[in-house]
Amino acid sequence: MLRDFPLIIADESVDGRIIRSLIDAGFRVYSVIIETPGIADTEVIDIAIAANGFIVTEDKDFGDELVYKETNHVGSLLLRISDLIIDDRIHLVIDTLTQHGLKMKDCFSVLTAKKLRVRKYE
Question: Class of the 2-114 domain?
Fold first, then answer.
């Protein structure tokens, strides 16, 4: 499954421990904080489009940019799990991407401690 999953574009809002754990779990990850810190959300989206990637972010602004402004459709996962301890956050993200990642590839998804919402682009 991991080899079929697109390159994850980890926005600089994503905790570095989650990024490291994704890499350790076998996901391919482009870390904005390491590669291109300080770029705008639109530039992160451009990177994802060029790489046919999948954005992981903790920044709610991506919802506006991807869904409401009808930006080119890029799969994404908005993490709303900051209330969990880091070990639980890591396990939840990895389990979610491993189990549901392929169905989220072309969708805007939101992960909370209690559920995963997957919204297809219209």
Answer: alpha beta
